[in-house]
Every structure is written in C-alpha cells, then in structure tokens.
Amino acid sequence: TAEEVEETTAVEEETAEEVEETTAVEEETTEEAAEETTEAAEETTEAQEEEAPAKVLPLTGKIVRVTDRAVEDGDIVNVDYVGGAEGTTFNTQGAGTTLVKGIASFTDQMLEQLAGHKAGETVTTNVKFPEDFVLANLKGKDASFEVTINYIVEAEEN
Q1: What is the mean pLDDT of residues 87-91?
Q2: Cα(66)–Cα(82) distance, rounded to whole angstroms?
Q3: Strand pairing class (76-85; 142-156)
Q4: Dihedral sign of CA atoms 139, 140, 145, 150 in order
Q5: Distance between CA 71 and CA 28 in Å, rounded?
Q6: Cα Rg of the chain, angstroms
Q7: Residue 52 pLDDT more than 90?
Q8: Which pLDDT score is estimated for 55?
Q9: Which residue, of 35, 66, 106, 147, is most buried by count of CB atoms within 10 Å of its CB?
Q10: Which residue, among 63, 77, 153, has the nearest Cα to 109 in the 3D structure?
Q11: Angle at 90 between CA 84 and CA 91, to 5 degrees
C-alpha cells in the first residue's frame, strides 16, 4: 500500500542519514588518528636524532661511515621510510631518520630486519608497536614500513 511505501521510504532515508553520519565520524576519527600518528612519528624522529649520537659518542669517541658491507648488529643506520599500521597510512615520511639500537623496540625490530642489507637497498619491515607506545591508537598494533637505507655508520673504538 501507499502508506507502507511511505513508511519504507522514510525508514530508508533515516538509515541513509545514519550511514552518512557514521561515515563522517569514521572519516574524522581516521583523520585524527593519522594526525596523531604523524605528530608522534615526528616527535620520535626528533628524539632519535637528538639521543642517538649522545648514546654512542660518549662510549666510543667517534663514528665512521661504512661503505664496504651490509648492516650489522650495533650499526647506526640512516633511512627514509613510509609505512602504516593495520590499514592506516602514516602521513609522515621518515626522510633521513637515524635508527639506533635501544631507542625504541619497534625501531630495534626494524634494525634487525635491515641486517644483511646495504646502503641503497629498500626493505619491507614488519614491526609491532609496544603496548606502552605513546599513541593509544598504535599500542600493540602491527605496522609495515618500506625502508630505504641511506647510509650505515659504526662506532669506532678508541
């Protein structure tokens, strides 16, 4: 009947509005998560750059660029990366990021997977963010990064 058709149409319109509202909220949440991820990645990169030499230099005196071999345990590795976690692409590119063992567990995981690769190579790394990670939306999440090795340095003994 016409009344049933009108009721069905009204319900369909109401459902469409709810779907639009839900979609808008999901898009906003995804954008907020991506912004938070970008900010944390930038903060982490800045902290790594500041802390890395400070952790190595007092112990060893100087670092030397390596050109004749692949990444080994204990090396400092400068990389460019792009990546994401569980369907979210990070809005940051880690251009010129320095990875030093012991700074963060997920970067340690990256370094382990870069072992055996040389400067100029691009490697896909898979890591798991720690449960105590600074961003709630990434705690315990799996992430994948395309990492290009720019150069390798090692601490030289005095």
Answers
A1: 76
A2: 24
A3: antiparallel
A4: positive
A5: 40
A6: 23
A7: no
A8: 46
A9: 147
A10: 77
A11: 160
* Spatial CA neighbour of 97 closest among 45, 55, 137, 132: 45
CB 77 within 8 A of CB 109: no
Asked if 109 and 125 touch (Cβ cutoff 8 Å), the reply is: yes
Instruction: Output the DSSP codes for 43-94.
Output: HHHHHHHHHHHHHHHHHHSEEEEE-SS---TT-EEEEEEEEEETTEE-S---
117 alpha carbon, distance to own chain's centre: 20
Query: Among residues 116, 114, 113, which one has the least CA distance to residue 70?
Result: 116
H or E stretch at 108:
helix 105-114
**How far apart (Å, rounded) are the C-alpha atoms in residues 73 and 145?**
19
What distance in Å separates the CA atoms of residue 75 and residue 155, rounded to the nearest whole number?
7
Least trusted range by pLDDT, from 3-17, 46-60, 98-112: 46-60
Provide the residue count of the chain.
Answer: 158
The answer to whether the CB of 74 falls within 8 A of the CB of 155 is yes
Please provide the distance, in angstroms rounded to a whole number, between the alpha carbons at the two ends of the chain: 92
